[in-house]
Amino acid sequence: MGSFEDLAGLSFFSVLTRAHLGRLSSVARTVAFPAGKVIFSEGDEARDLFFVMEGRVSIEIAIPGRGPSTIMSVKKGDVFGWSAFVPPHEETATARALEPVTAIVLDGARLRDVCETDLELGYRIARAFNIVLAMRLQAVRMQLMDLYGAPAEVRREDV
Amino acid sequence: MTPTAQGGSVWLARADLARLLDALRSRGYRPLGPRLRDGVIVYDELESAEQLPAGWTDEQAPGHYRLRRREDDRLFGFVVGPHSWKRFLHVPEVTLAATAGGGRWQSADSPALEKLAFIGVRACEMAAIRIQDRVLTGGPFVDPHYRTRRESVLFVGVNCTEPGGTCFCASMNTGPRHREGHDLVLTEMAGGFVAQAATPPGRELLEQLGLSAATSEVSSAAGEAVEAAAVRMGRKLATDGLAMLLKTNLEHPFWDEVAARCLSCANCTMACPTCFCSTVEETSDLSGPTASRVRKWDSCFNADFARVHGGNFRPAVRDRYRQWMTHKLSSWFDQFGTSGCVGCGRCITWCPVGIDLTEGAARIRQAPMQGHEEEEAKIRRGLELLAPHSVGVSTAAPAGCLEDCSMVPARARVVSTGYDTADTFTMRLELEDQTARGRYRFRPGQFNMLSLPGIGECAISICSSPLNQVQIGHTVRAVGSVTRALQALKPGAAIGLRGPFGSSWPVEECEDADLILVAGGIGLAPLRPVLCQVMANRASFGHVRLLYGARSPEDMLYARDLLAWSSDRAGLEVQVTVDTAGPDWTGHVGVVTTLFKHITLQPQRTVAMVCGPEVMMRFTVRELLRLGVPPVAILVSMERNMKCAVGFCGHCQYGPHFVCKDGPVFRYPQVERTLWKEGI
Questions:
Q1: A54 at the B interface (CB within 8 A)?
Q2: Which residues in B lie closer than 8 A to residue A67 (C-beta atoms)?
């Protein structure tokens, strides 16, 4: 069983009532990973949703011939593994503990059930996901812009 | 007493004009005036009064200029041609400096300038010259080439009695009557001129000619003719509130409409008597040892005008037209306390497609953008916030700047150079000359212009500690011809240095405050001097935090410094993040703004300093505001195309600011209304 207080402390769940949190803690558990441990791999069935309580986790995508490339890292308070909430429930990246990690884990299938039976709770959780995903999208857009250096072709002609 | 000595008007018969020119020559003046050439009236050497365009007039309309015969033989019965007097003051081409070999720059010897007499200056043109005076001699730097020429001129003005089809000086309050700046002024009447002196040299001239007083009839007729001209202007421009109106309509559909017609040919700027923008070209002879630096007129309509490595800040014609018109009619007030337009109509006449800025201004006034009042309220609120911080027109002489540095680089030596990343290196320079070393004082956030003879010059911010003013550090990314040439320099090599230039991070103001420095990529370089200063006096500051984002671990600058700053002993909070990383990196991955998610700060005692790519700064500012940091306590360092670094060339303009002298460090409210817009 995940600690009620731990869940309540997450800003992700700040939109939930205490009753909601109580229902959620029934599907939550706390887990620990040693540094270097692969928590899940790209292509795995996405079973769990993770909230980092301690340590840092890298989210990686393997590029053939170049090895894994970290596209973001998450730490205390951050959520990862959200494919467990979004169909087709298949991991889109690999998560690896960079340091010893403690996380609260919500079982994806049970969480979805809870949301389906309590639509208000489901709406609030979907909204919390919206906020996180919008921030991720914005961050990815900024990464896409590759702000810190212009492409080599552009540079060549300049001073 | 002679009539002139009494300050009255005298009658200068037409035949006496030749005597006036003789008198000017006898006093050492070379007369220049209007002449017919190539189907237009130009300003050129006047060998005799016979060369004046007697009996000619010019018919002007948008995109239209034709010489026509007059029914009389008036000498000044035309308006103005494509030339303006700026070609003799802010000349189209001037050598600023040359090397005599060995890479030592010397101020180009300006030839002993003869005194010039401008004959037939119109009131609008006199106003234009006074506007250029402010631009080029109003400080903080003074253009010596302009000043020398300017001081040599005697002005013989002519009041206009027949305004042209594109004239609107009456709207701009610059004409048709001369008011200030001229030495003497003529009003042409049948058979001669009513002449009046305004300065001692003008008075002496008229006295030398021994003229008699003008009759009161002819004097008042002349006065009436000028008055009548004021109400016969071919164009009108409503100036009331126009400067603000343009600032609040930067996204008006008019800019797209006009861009569909504008050829971006730069004619308007070449013909304009106040446009002052220039570029500098460096040339070397084939044998190598000598090089010269030549300044030439440039135009904000040229495609490369706002280009820097990696991009062009005003890629579209719309951006360039908007820059020109808003500069002329709006930003000019912020920069120089005056309009940049005198109403001479040249830009309308000489536009090949007849674009008329009076029409454009009227179009915006008639149907301003929705929400322009809110925008105005925001601008005014920003100005209120800024008021206690004395930012604005800067005319104070810059302390610590090298002598002659507006034009001529001092010689420095490379002391050391080393790589930070694959394409970025840091070089330390030492000025050669003892006096220059004693004079040079930079503040954190300022920049130098570094150059190599025959290759060129570029702006590089100073990255070293302000506690060491002898060895000056510069972090350079090798991205173009100049920076790659700098990259090849070995210790001991000579290099040209002008500076230091620009505004600085207000570190002194931050004592006891909490500091949050946010840097992206090479943007850490101008913040490094702040950290050095903080470390030297750590106890004077509150909580100090550095958030640094780089593309990858390999692209991070100052790895050694970052380690030292991260140690517990340093008393700083350092958070580093990269956009992408390989498996060896165990630090944070994500754009720099993601670091804010985990930050708590005391906003009211926090000063934020932000430097990095513009988009990164926008998102960072947003986070800082969200955390409650007061807008004036957020400082950003802007980048634009810096060429002259002293406010003459116009390239680095950013809205109402010159990044070179008003920036690069700005308080957020200074840039708030433009930071979110494209093409500025």
A1: no
A2: 582-583
Tally C-beta pairs within 8 A across A and B: 108
Chain B within 8 Å of A14 (Cβ-Cβ)? no
- Give pLDDT tens digits for B69-102: 999 999 999 999 999 999 999 999 999 888 876 6
Considering the domain boundaries, does residue A116 fall inside one?
A: yes
Specify if A157 maps to a domain: no
Distance from CA of B28 to the nearest CA of A (A): 46
**B367 pLDDT exceeds 50?**
yes
Contact (CB<8Å) B594/A69: no
Domain count, chain A: 1
Asked whether residue A104 is domain-assigned, the answer is yes
CA distance B234 to B139: 36
Chain A residues with CB under 8 Å of B593 CB are 139, 142
pLDDT above 80: residue B167: yes
- Which residues from B are below 8 Å from A151, CB to CB? 310
Residue of B522, B589, B600, B611 to mutate when probing chain A, most A C-beta within 10 A: B589
- Could you give the CA distance from residue B240 to residue B263 in angstroms, rounded to a whole number? 29
pLDDT of residue B393 exceeding 50, the answer is no
Question: From B578, which residue of chain A is nearest by alpha-carbon distance?
Answer: A72
Dist CA B68 CA B63 (whole Å): 16
Rounded Cα gap, residues A73 and A58, in angstroms: 4
Residue at A82 is within a domain? yes
Q: Write the CATH number for A127.
A: 2.60.120.10
Binary contact (B579, A149; C-beta < 8 A): no
* A102 reaches B (C-beta below 8 A): no
The predicted pLDDT at position B3 comes to 62
Q: Tell me the pLDDT tens digit for each residue of B268-312.
A: 999 999 999 999 988 887 776 788 889 999 999 998 888 887 778
Identify the burial level of B267 via C-beta atoms within 10 angstroms of its C-beta, where 0-12 means exposed, 13-18 middle and 19 or more buried: buried
Asked if residue B664 has pLDDT above 80, the reply is yes
Domain B410-501 has CATH 1.10.3720.10: no
How far apart are alpha carbons B277 and B648 in whole angstroms? 7
Residue spans per domain, chain B: 10-230, 242-389, 410-501, 507-637
Percent of chain B with pLDDT over 70: 96
Q: B301-336 burial, b for 16+ CB within 10 Å, e for fewer? A: bbeebbbbbbebbbebbbbbbbbbbbbbbbbbbbbb
Question: What pLDDT score does B395 carry?
Answer: 54
Within its chain, how far is the Cα of B647 from the centroid? 4
The structure tokens 């060998």 sit at B47
d(CA B474, CA B482): 14
Domain residue limits at A82: 4-33+46-55+73-89+100-146
Per mean pLDDT, which range of B11-20, B28-37, B111-120, B285-294 is the poorest? B285-294
Query: Quick one: tokens of B123?
Result: 């009131």
- Asked if B586 has any chain A CB less than 8 Å from its own CB, the reply is yes
Q: Which residue has the higher pLDDT, B26 or B139?
A: B26
In CATH, what class is B507-637?
Answer: alpha beta
Q: ipTM, 2 decimals?
A: 0.81
Backbone torsion region of residue B365, taken as left when φ is above 0, otherwise alpha when ψ lies between -120 and 50, otherwise beta: alpha
Residue B312, chain A, CB below 8 Å: the answer is no
Which residue of A41, A131, A142 to mutate against B (max B Cβ within 10 Å)? A142
- Contact A75/B588, CB-based, under 8 Å? yes
- Inform me whether the pLDDT recorded for A14 exceeds 90: no
Does the pLDDT at position B41 exceed 50?
Answer: yes
At B347-365, the pLDDT tens digits run 999 999 999 999 999 999 9
Residue A6 has pLDDT above 90, yes or no: no
